[in-house]
Amino acid sequence: MVRQNITVYVVLYTNGWLLLPLQLGLYYGSIRARSSSYSFQLGKQIEEENRNLCKNFHKETIYQLISLHAHTGVIKEQTKKRIN
Question: Is-annotated flag, keyword Transmembrane helix (predicted)?
């Protein structure tokens, strides 16, 4: 009984069928590793783009507020001159 099982495994091994589950497992594992690595890189890239976008938006908003404040200051000065 034992010898028969050994021969079956030897025959399967020589045909490559014994390695098939191992190869499929390694292939599936490499696909999962690549996809998780890709999603990690994509997440880092999105995070960096969001950070840059927020920086640029923040700078632009501050610039607009300063220019708006300067513009209202000019209007105030012109109004004071008209009143006086």
Answer: yes
